[in-house]
Every structure is written in C-alpha cells, then in structure tokens.
Design brief:
It is elongated and about 80 Å long. Strand 2 and strand 3 form a beta hairpin. It has two domains: 94 residues, no CATH class; 71 residues, no CATH class. The chain contains six helices and five strands, in the order H-H-E-E-E-H-H-H-E-E-H. By secondary structure, it is an alpha+beta fold. The model has no long low-confidence stretch (mean pLDDT 89). A three-stranded antiparallel beta sheet has the order 1-2-3, with helices on one face.
Length: 186
C-alpha cells in the first residue's frame, strides 16, 4: 500500500471524506475490495458503477448542473449491504476502529510516575526528570519563543505536594488581591 492510499484510508477511518472526488473514492474502494467501473464523456466522469465485495451494485451518475459526480448515496448503500467502510479501512490499516480506541482510552489508568495534575491550572501534564511539571500554559505566536507559562511549572504535581498551589496563593493571588483592595480604597 502506498502512502497516498494509506492517508486516504486514515481519512475514511476518521470520517473525513467530504473532500473526496472520483480518484480518491476509486483508490479507496479498490483497496477495500470493491470493483469500480467508470464511464467518461470527454474528460468528465459521467457514471460510476461500484460492485461490493459480496455482490450488490451501486450506480452513480453525474447530476445535471453538477461539475462532478457526488457520492452522497455511497455510505447509505454500504450500510444497506452490511458493510462498514470505517471498519474495513481500519482492518486494511491494521488498526483498531475509532470506537475501540475510545473504549480502550476510557479503560486507561493514569500512571503518576510520569504525569500529574498541575496544582494551579489543574491540567494533566508530563513531569520533568526532577519531578516538577513541564512547560505548559504558554503560546508560540510564530517568533520561535515561548510566551507566558503556567505559574506551577517546575513545582511537583498536586498528587505529590500542594507547594505549587500554596506558592501561587502567596506570590500571585494575595498581591493581586491586595492591589485590588488598595485600588478600591483609593
């Protein structure tokens, strides 16, 4: 299987097929075991006949006032003959279907040896080699530099120590609150 076919099958697996044309669908369907016959008038494909791996045919013709053939009927037809293109694409790629991946992800138990909950922003992030939180909460607007950072970078995760939250309270929130109270008093 070439790289182009692999990328097309990955798109089918995700359901990102809205931009597929005749060439893309032909490549995907032939890879999945369908037979595809096209009829051209000049340079334009005017009819496609798709035969399923277990039989059954679907004919698609170019509609008047359309530039290309549309594949609106393909997915309902495959479901009608008990074929799931997502499962077929996943099998061809040697991968689990997205549904199975989601279920496996739900069963995943977080390993706290390499990750932890940030004591300030409460996100789940990796830890650096010293036990502190890695860079997070920043932006890279395109100049190659990190702009901004979460206060708790370098502090241990919440599960290990509340020191990051306490430092944030004392060094960031309290001075801000005191400044706001001073401003209101003036």
């Amino acid at each position: 299987m070439n790289e182009t076919t692999r990328k097309l099958l990955l798109k089918v697996r995700k359901g990102a097929i809205s931009g597929f044309g005749v060439k893309q669908w032909t490549e995907v369907l032939v890879t999945l075991g369908f037979q595809v016959q096209t009829t051209k008038t000049g340079r334009t494909v005017t009819e496609i006949i798709i035969t399923g791996p277990q039989g059954g045919c679907l004919g698609l013709t170019k509609r008047p006032n359309y530039k290309h053939i549309v594949f609106y009927d393909l997915i309902p037809w495959t479901k009608g003959i008990n074929l799931d293109l997502v499962k077929m694409a996943s099998d061809a790629l040697g991968m689990d279907t997205p549904d199975v991946e989601r279920k496996l992800k739900d069963l995943y138990v977080r390993d706290l040896t390499n990750t932890g909950t940030c004591p300030v922003c409460e996100g789940n992030f990796k830890r650096d080699g010293k036990g502190g939180m890695v860079h997070h909460g920043y932006q890279r607007p395109g100049d190659g530099f990190i702009h901004g950072d979460c206060f708790a970078v370098g502090y241990q995760p919440w599960e290990i120590s509340p020191a990051g939250a306490m430092a944030y309270l004392q060094n960031a929130l309290r001075p801000h609150l005191e400044g706001a109270e001073h401003h209101l008093a003036r």
